[in-house]
Amino acid sequence: MSNDKIWQEYIEKNFDKFISSLKSDDFISGKKEIINEKDIDFFEPKKTYDCLRKIINQDAIKKLQNRFRAHKHRENRGIKNLQLKSHSLNMLDKFKEQVGADTLEEAIDFLLSPDYRDYEHDVDLVKQRLGEGSFDSTELMLDSFTKRLKNYDRERLSLIIELAFNEGWRAAKQTKKRTDNPRQEALKQSDLYNSVVKLIARSNNAD
């Protein structure tokens, strides 16, 4: 696919979305304007940028350039399959929607590519909002952790989880207090939990 064809397909799908994302200070006039597509030459990137420079400032032009550069890079290199757990895909979909990415690939670019450095503040805000929401990463955390262990260590981990469950079960039956934070207080009284906390503290001090 030629570069001009990549550009024309990209700008046809994304021009309106890009313009609607601009703020008042992106316009030379200092206020949002309606851009008539008939006044813009979309034949190739340079001609489009030259037309837009009469309406929006260079920082706004750079945003469009960076987005297209990243898109062209993906097109030229091809698309690879990516396997994700369902909750991770849901999280990425939410991030994609809130940050204004067109595809999941672009959502990842927002997170990792230096071409999207201008959006770092927006990305951080979205990450903070998503982090405060409900995202069950327990399965992902356990899966990633257990893959690093040998079979013997996995068996030990299973026994530790069983011990923790039984200890929690007994504590739940004995605890009748419902004020303040009984669950947190019960956790602090857990021998297994306290042993691990002390071990982590000793390791950090040794470092």
Summarize the structure in words.
This protein has 207 residues and is mainly α. It contains ten helices and no strands. It has helices spanning 3-21, 45-52, 58-77, 86-99, 104-112, 120-132, 138-146, 151-174, 182-188, 191-206. Helix 1 packs across helix 3 and helix 4 crosses helix 5 (104-112). It is elongated.
Give a topology summary.
Elements lengths: L2 H19 L23 H8 L5 H20 L8 H14 L4 H9 L7 H13 L5 H9 L4 H24 L7 H7 L2 H16 L1
Helix pairs in contact: 1-3, 4-5, 4-6
Mean pLDDT: 81
Number of E-type strands = 0
Q: What characteristic shape results from the CA principal axes?
A: elongated
Number of helices: 10
Which structural class should the secondary elements be placed in? mainly alpha
The percent of residues in helical segments reads 55-70%
- What's the multimeric state? single chain
Query: Sheet bearing the most strands, described?
Result: none
